[in-house]
Design brief:
It contains ten helices and three strands; from the N terminus they run βααβαααβααααα. The chain is 76% helix and 3% strand. Keywords: Cell membrane, G-protein coupled receptor, Membrane, Olfaction, Receptor, Sensory transduction, Transducer, Transmembrane, Transmembrane helix.
């Protein structure tokens, strides 16, 4: 039996114990964080400022960019602090709060990606009825429903985790707090917690992935029925950015929460992929592959330069 002495803080070991490597990692992740903030904040501003980007697709993309701002800010600042600190500690309450937001953000992103897949289905498969299908009320309901469902799911899981007793062993072989890690540190019976987390995660992952898969099934069928090569290319280009983000996110996030907490390097890689790298790449993927976004960005910077003169 492990000693349950109710620790007040945990130790986050981070990515490396070598001081020189930590300095390099600090610079690297600081640059990544600044790029994430700049890219996603610019996307939010562009969506709000340009009237041409007030369609449902860009409405959801604005939510995704705001989510990525929040997602990255939940984990990266604490990681940067610990890379430069000797103590590398986080309070139990802070760890639980971080685990809640990581879990909530992950669920929200999955739901938003599924909603965006449905939007692409409506645009490509029913172009004449697109405006009626994706009404303003439906778009707002789908977006806020995604946030609400994920936050409720995270709240249920974290309330159960708050009743756990934690053991004297309080070292976390990770750079952030996640629910599977907290279960590993507890000396309570965590069977209920694991079951609830797996069931809720699998339910959200299965429903959202099924919606994405069925949407793209109809999209591919519609694209193949288009006679002209130019028409097929144009139709596919409207959803290629979204498909890239889906593959990046679902591949790493689902694997991370389905694998047991063991402190392996693979856990760190998957967590970095969906919580640090993907939020940085999302605005790049959507801006580089989307002519309307690139045009809006140039227009915004052009107006800014004129004001500067």
């Amino acid at each position: 039996m492990q000693n349950c002495s109710a620790p007040t803080e945990f130790i986050l070991l981070g990515l490396s114990a070598d001081a020189h490597i930590q300095a390099v990692l600090f610079v690297l992740f600081l640059v990544i964080y600044l790029l994430t903030l700049t890219g996603n904040f610019m996307m939010v501003l562009v969506m709000m400022a340009d009237a041409h980007l007030h369609s449902p697709m860009y409405f959801f993309l604005g939510h995704l960019s705001f989510l990525d701002l929040w997602y990255s800010s939940v984990s990266v600042p604490k990681m940067l602090e610990n890379l430069m600190s000797k103590t590398k500690t986080i309070s139990v309450e802070g760890c639980l709060a971080q685990a809640f937001f990581v879990f909530a953000n992950g669920g929200t992103e999955a739901c938003l990606l599924a909603v965006m897949a449905y939007d692409r289905y409506a645009a490509i498969c029913h172009p004449l009825l697109y405006g009626q299908i994706m009404s303003k009320q439906l778009c707002e309901g789908l977006a806020w429903g995604s946030w609400s469902l994920a936050l409720l799911n995270a709240l249920i899981n974290i309330l159960l985790a708050m009743n756990l007793d934690f053991c004297e062993y309080r070292t976390i072989h990770h750079y952030i707090c996640e629910l599977p890690i907290l279960f590993h540190l507890s000396c309570s019976n965590v069977q209920t917690n694991i079951t609830v987390m797996l069931c809720s995660s699998l339910m959200i992952a299965f429903v959202t992935f099924l919606l994405i898969l069925s949407s793209y099934g109809y999209i591919v069928s519609t694209i193949l029925s288009i006679s002209s090569t130019a028409g097929r290319s144009k139709a596919f280009s409207t959803c290629s950015s979204h498909l890239t983000v889906v593959l990046l996110y679902f591949g790493s996030a689902c694997l991370r929460y389905l694998m047991p907490a063991s402190g392996s390097p693979l856990e760190l890689i998957f967590s970095l992929q969906y919580s640090v790298i993907t939020p940085m790449l999302n605005p790049l993927i959507y801006s580089l592959k989307n002519k309307e976004v690139k045009t809006a960005v140039r227009k915004m910077f052009g107006k800014y330069c004129q004001h500067c003169k």
